[in-house]
Automatic annotation (TrEMBL):
Pfam families: EamA. Gene3D superfamilies: 1.10.3730.20. It is a multi-pass membrane protein. The keyword Transmembrane applies. InterPro entries: AA-Vitamin_Transporters, EamA_dom, EmrE-like. The chain crosses the membrane at residues 12-35, 41-63, 75-96, 102-121, 133-153, 165-183, 195-213, 225-249, 256-275, 281-298. Keywords: Membrane, Transmembrane, Transmembrane helix. It is found in: Membrane. This is DMT family transporter. The keyword Hydrolase does not apply. Belongs to the EamA transporter family. Residues 18-149, 163-298 form the EamA domain.
Length: 308
């Protein structure tokens, strides 16, 4: 039997949640640039494995310093292992998929995840129902994302199609991970412990996966590669993910997921600032459409008339 989870608030996110979400999306947008830089010197799945290993060590140290109990008597082991496997599969598919398709195409498919979250939350999380306004908002934000990368959405080659399908599968696993956390005892344990399950499982699973895929374990320890890996370990896969899982435990998952459409927009901005990549005029319209979609998902729901 699934443990009961207190229904989340049906209202809009408060200022703390919104501010933290925008910051996280900005950090994750820069991470897209870091992944590109790191992949220049480390094979993709090995790169992801090193990120998980380094972040797991940091989060474990944090738990020890903060006195966070890591015992299994709280009933979190089974959902924690499941979330860890989903997390590992998600990033294996993202890193491998991005190696086969373009970054712009991959981003569009990965950000199908909010739809998975909304459907899963509707089914498994009390109080987080999928309304017409939420669905319209998610669709608007997704269309804005597609508009931002429209120039890259041509007919794919066979290899690109393979990468696209990997990124779409990663989106399903990402959404499923969020729903598992929200609808299980993981919603009641410290966010650092929830993250440690995922980093620990992925750190164990991804190195063998890298070997099975025939990746080279030769690493070019050049300054940009080291900086990119350090950013992902210190900022993305540890601090930012702890904050994200803290948010998941306290706010409606579907409302949180809508904000993640901002991440690739920040990624485009980071690419322009750090790599000199061009920004197309369509980006402004895309940002407006994404913002409108987020507003639709998060606007207060009208009060229902009392039953007779």
């Amino acid at each position: 039997m699934r443990p009961s989870v207190p229904p989340p608030s049906a209202g809009a996110l408060d200022a703390t949640a919104v501010g933290l979400l925008v910051l996280l999306c900005a950090l994750w947008g820069v991470a897209q640039v870091a992944v590109k830089a790191g992949n220049a010197g480390i094979a993709p799945v090995l790169h992801c494995a090193l990120r998980s290993l380094g972040a797991a060590a940091l989060v474990l140290l944090w738990c020890r310093l903060r006195g966070i109990r890591l015992g299994m008597r709280d009933g979190s082991l089974a959902p924690g292992l499941l979330a860890g496997l989903l997390f590992a599969g998600e990033f294996l598919l993202i890193f491998a998929g991005m190696d086969r398709t373009t970054a712009a195409r991959g981003v569009v498919f990965v950000y199908f995840a909010p739809f998975v979250v909304a459907l899963g939350a509707h089914r498994f999380t009390p109080g987080d129902r999928l309304t017409g306004a939420k669905l319209a908002g998610l669709a608007a934000a997704f269309l804005g994302l597609a508009l931002a990368f429209a120039d890259s959405l041509r007919l794919p080659s066979a290899r690109e199609l393979e990468g696209d399908l990997m990124c779409l599968a990663a989106a399903v696993l990402w959404g499923a991970t969020t729903v598992v956390i929200k609808a299980s005892r993981l919603a009641r344990v410290p966010a650092a412990k929830t993250l440690l399950y995922q980093l620990g499982v992925s750190a164990a699973v991804l190195p063998p996966a890298s070997l099975l895929l025939g990746e080279s374990w030769t690493i070019r320890w050049e300054p940009p590669v080291v900086a990119a890996l350090a950013y992902q370990v210190l900022i993305v896969a540890s601090a930012s993910y702890v904050a994200w899982f803290w948010l998941i435990a306290r706010y409606p998952a579907s409302r949180l997921a809508a904000f993640t459409f901002l991440t690739p927009v920040f990624g485009v901005a980071a690419g322009a600032l750090l790599l000199g990549e061009p920004v197309t005029p369509a980006l402004a319209a895309a940002v407006a459409l994404i913002g409108f979609g987020i507003w639709l998902v998060n606007r207060p729901e009208p009060a229902r008339p009392p039953a007779d």
